[in-house]
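Below is how a single chain appears once it has passed through the pipeline. First comes the sequence as given, then the structure the pipeline wrote out for it. We keep one example in the README because the format questions we get most often are answered faster by looking than by reading.
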Amino acid sequence: MANWAAQQISCSAPSSPQQPQLSTLLSAPVGLWGMFTKRPRPALGAAERGGDQRPRGSGPQGRHHSFTMAARRVPKVTSKEGASQCQEKHVVLLSPVGKLEMSGCETGVHEIKLPKLSVLPNGTEAPMRCELCGTATSMPEPLQQCAAWLSAYFCEPSRTQQLPLPPFHHPMLQRDSFTREVLWTLLREVKFGETISYQQLAEQAGNSRAARAVGGAMRSNPIPIIIPCHRVICSSGQIGNYGGGNLMKEWLLSHEKLQKEKLAD
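Resulting structure:
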């Protein structure tokens, strides 16, 4: 364990001092961004690891799995090596539902925090536009992509299929677990304007008896809206609970239904 800290591989702060304009981000070229990187960790003694507790599928030496989820498939891309300590950056996006707080680094998005709504916005009161709040110097590329994707989601949903998804960099999405499998399946399979029940999602994730565990995975989702846990509802048709509050979930579902109808016309 003595050399464990020295052997950690994390990400460096972005090198570019200039922040691109949001309009430039929205016109980014079409593509899917993603990666599966495998980074070895030093072997631990039985006393240090509390017995044989290797992650499932990690192999005899144990591995960390980092990846980016794409809407349809996840290409394997090797990440940059030799980086120094991860430096987290924070950005606030003003949206029709309030301030969305995004955090991330050069490797990927860490988290999106939603505001709690006390009043349900409607189409006439909520301006369908987004803008970055304040000046975020040297904003990492994953946060640029995140802001561009969320802006398109609210203002021009058809663009979300053309924009690259940002890479994710959160421990929950790196561990080999049922929660990760559920979130990944949700992102791949449940499209804009669609819904799925907890039971159906459990079946698609490989365990039809794990509807309750699916609910726990939704509560733990660190990247809401992009990983669309708001689209998971009860089998009865009730919308169920939501980490951002039921008013937020109701608004997001109504927004997608209305925009999908407009696209179909």
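DSSP finds eight helices and eight strands in the chain.

See the next section for the split statistics.
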